[in-house]
Amino acid sequence: MNHDQPGGTPLLSEFADDPEMVELVELFVAEMPMKVTSLRKAFDEHSLTDLTRLAHQLKGAAAGYGFPTIGEVASELEGAAKATEDVNRLRTQVDELVELCNRASMAA
Amino acid sequence: MTASAPDKSTILLIDDSIDMHRLLSVRLRGDHLEIIGADNGLDGIGMARTRSPDLILLDVDMPEMDGFEVLQTLRDDAATHEIPVIFLAGMTTTEDKVRAFEMGAMDFVSKPPDFAELKARVRSALRISFLMKMLAQKARLDGLTGLGNRAYIDERLNEEFAQSTRHNRSLSLIMSDLDNFKSVNDTYGHPHGDAVLIKFASLLAEGCREGDIACRYGGEEFAVILPETERDDAAEVAERVRASLEAVEWLVHPERRITASFGVASLSCVEAPSIERLVAAADSALYAAKRKGRNRVILAKPEGRRFSLSA
Known about the structure:
The complex is a heterodimer. By secondary structure, chain A is mainly alpha-helical. Chain A has helices spanning 22-30, 32-44, 48-62, 68-83, 87-103, and strands at 11-12, 104-105.
């Protein structure tokens, strides 16, 4: 099963109808594949530092673009990356975050 | 020296997250706010110095220099220590918040921020900061004449004295006192006395050159600080004001001419220069002007070396 392919129900930004935010949300969504790639790479390279940094960035930013659930899951991953070296647990968290990121969308 | 509401406020965001810069510039757009940004502490401090923003939004959690270090540096620098700072922080303890407030942060907003709340807090911080500036100015302003007051003179004398000693430049002071002012008040009433004070203040301000600082020392006594000015040039300013006051045709009670006496001193007149000695020298010149018949300008004589007789 390939987690990196967009799929599932689109996750809509809370600000999808906010004219001043449209451009920014589009930009954020457009950058998602790049973020997913970085997350996967950090996990594959077992870099807890990179995982923590990427999760931290997403945690701080996602809610601002109208994706609070991505922010919450990113926060959990950041916590996990700081607290554990348990590969299985980290994999679950990364998978969950990637799945959400792939569903992030500007419109239904 | 007047405080007016700013028509546009500049907000400096210091944050290593590109997303914060993007989101903030959209969310705080309009409303007469200009957003400038730095993505690290050092650049942020540099921008705070060169751009003098009205407010700084400061991320706590940054690599290399964190928000606390940045705030400390801003507070230690006279150029930036009065700029209000709102801290932006993710996971924070009460201890962090207390520390931030103790270091002089004006407010604390959790990350990720609710932008509507952040905007409201930005407005509130700008309002408080504006009122504080206005109060600070008013506390240094004489209510009747609009000139600087005694507190302002002391502050500026300290600054100008430090400047002149540092750069080895001259500094002069004019002390002035309206002649027989008590009798003006007693004879014509306080409203006329106030009108005289206001008129004299404006003549004093008009007689000054750019860079001179005219103040009301208290009562009917006024002072002018003249940076980078030798005594004789300061005397010209005093003489100009003296002549202009004497020439005033008063609409009310024109029968009474109003005059003032002036004492002029400069740092080169005093041994072991200090602010106290400069003021004392100008003061004694002023009293000499009174003794010699008022309505004149008297210059302080350079002090020779003296010896004291021990008791």
